[in-house]
Amino acid sequence: MKERFKYFFDQKDRPKILVIGDLILDEYVWGGINRISPEAPVLF
Description:
The chain contains one helix and no strands. With 44 residues, the protein is an all-alpha fold.
């Protein structure tokens, strides 16, 4: 499989590739926990 990718990218006439999709950016929030909800196992 690596050889096929290497051959594909080493060609002089490289094909044009269009990638269509979504961009997802994650954000992490750090904090402390004071209590646990009695109705559900949710931290708040």
